[in-house]
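pinned: reference chain
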Amino acid sequence: MKRERTKLSQAVATRRAYFAVLAACSLLVAAATAAEWNARNVGVDDALVASTDDATAAGGDASSEGELAAEAKAPALPVADEVLEGHIRKGETLGSSLARHAVGPATVHLIATEMAPVFNFRYARSGDFYRLGRSADGRLLHFDYERSKLERYRLAWDGERYTAVADEPEIVRRKTRIAGLIDSSLYESIEKLGGEVSLANDFADVFAWDLDFSRSVRAGDEFAILYERLYLAPEDEAEFYVGPGRILAARYATRDADHRAVYFEPEEGRGGYYRPNGTAVERQFLRAPLHYRRISSAYSLSRLHPILKVRRPHQGIDYAAAHGTPVWSVGDGQVIFRGRMGGFGKLVKVRHNNGYVSYYGHLSGYAKGVRKGARVAQKQVLGFVGATGLATGPHLDYRLKKNGRYINPASLQLPAGIPIPEESLPRFSGLRDELLSELDPRPLVSGTGAL
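pinned: its structure tokens
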């Protein structure tokens, strides 16, 4: 669910209409003495000083636990509310952004401290929207913070104390089927039928262990996707579409094979994609370690080297791709080398189970955290396409060894994935039959249909 919410947060623009201006005019807010108020300014949270550009790399708690609640109480003053709103700009912190509205560090500290249980402002990022209500003398009455339509937070004074909550909107999920024939690329074919790029990416990920959509797609191939379309239904507002949710069932058929998969959770909250026979789609290795333009050089025992001009074995696959394209690990493993190595230039080597070692050469640089001894997960970014070492242009030299000998990655026969536990098979069989009947309910046409 976390992954789904992150994806939707990136897919949609900020919608500010959800914030209701709080009826704070009836609230009487405490006034602190100048000394008391300034005392609360000491040690403004580091989260307000760190740049939003570094947000994804930071961690830890935003601040101490609600120390300001008791100090917020004081004799009441007449209130005349003022509402301010804005967005975090690139390079700004919450503090510097609010300073543009003449909001002082004491109020910023109060917001960060009281909202720490629900949101850490170290993760504030450019584009986040906020709305602040304050009294005529500048005292905070409420603060709303929105990162996307699906991620919103609110801080409000309830007459006695500040209360912070994460506002989780109600999501309406509707099954939808999209199906058609490939006439160019998978992405273009899905977009022509009204599907988003993110849906095409998710579909490609489902079959990433069986198909390399950068080169395996042929005109006339068939595809079908049964997925959730997500809608929000705000109170007193019309329902509107947010974006695609989880793929429930998928099919891709070529002249030679018919690939099908359904989503199933053997345990609540822990699921994945399985073939109709109950084996997991996920395997030890992915078919390709990046999104690439073309294969510039295949595995060969005798290739004319483009620079050295001599024939020698090329026991790997060269993937031509734009400089800086992310390169990921084909499987779980441990980094055993990161550095320069002769003609490979900048190289990463990963050791996997069952005697396999994968090589990623000619990189322009390494991803953060990738170092010798580090554990990496399948599809974790290791580095970026470059042209270091003996290279005529940007590409990835990908190689694979089995028990110390190079093998052709393109001809590797991967074993079937782990099957569903026997006790879950009856439940899986029922769901599988239901989803596959919805996936292919009628003869295939190029079009979409809501169920």
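why pinned: Residues 5-80, 443-451 have pLDDT under 50 and may be disordered. The chain has three domains: 2-167, 171-283+423-450, 294-411.
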